[in-house]
Design goal:
The protein is an all-alpha fold. The chain contains three helices and no strands.
């Protein structure tokens, strides 16, 4: 994988993680978490997708460095 593409995926993952964190800290998510014990589905999806993208970006970047 190209280093530039890997870096772009990593940055996208970090941005999505940031939005997931913001969503988790929102008032709606806090109220939902108070009643259900879990954050909203949107917050969870943002955090999961952001983490996967970040891991793929890091993996691609490190793999590209070995070549």
């Amino acid at each position: 994988m190209n280093k530039f593409v890997s870096l772009a995926i990593l940055v996208a993952g970090l941005i999505v993680l940031y939005f997931g964190w913001q969503e988790k800290q929102s008032a709606a998510s806090q109220v939902t978490e108070a009643f259900t014990g879990q954050p909203t589905d949107n917050a969870m999806w943002f955090l999961i997708v952001g983490a996967v993208l970040a891991i793929v970006g890091i993996g691609g970047f490190l793999t590209g460095m070995k070549k």
